[in-house]
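Input chain follows. Return structure tokens only.
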Amino acid sequence: MQTGKAGLPLRTITTVMMALTGASLFIAFMLEDLSGLAPDQSAALSRMLVLRYILAMAIGGALAGWLLAGLFGRRGLRGWFLALLGGIVTALIAGLLGSAVGLLPDLLADGFSMGDLIAVAFGLLVFPLALAGQPLLLALWLILIGLTHLWARRARDLRRLS
């Protein structure tokens, strides 16, 4: 098992960081959408539904981070490229899985329909839509990916030393 300074395994690092990233992207996406709503539309929006999807996107990010942990923490320029690729792929998978997890209660209550498949597939767009026209959010996302990569590299280095 690959561990960091605090004894955190590499997969735990990427799982936690990608959960944070997935939830953050969804929050940014929602805030942008909510700013365009009329006050009466905003009041009618279920806060529990929004919280359910924030949690679902965090779960999607955690699963994606766990699955793709091997792309983070590698040395050199190739390692940075893999981390960037890993960040993009985990964000896309997080949106897809988060959308599926968020719809799960509705699927269990109402059954599956083709419209649900479209709603789940729309989860792939959370990442690009959240970043569209948001250079500050893109910078924040790059910082989170960079921190994940550096923390994962430290975990790999400490494992190599022990």
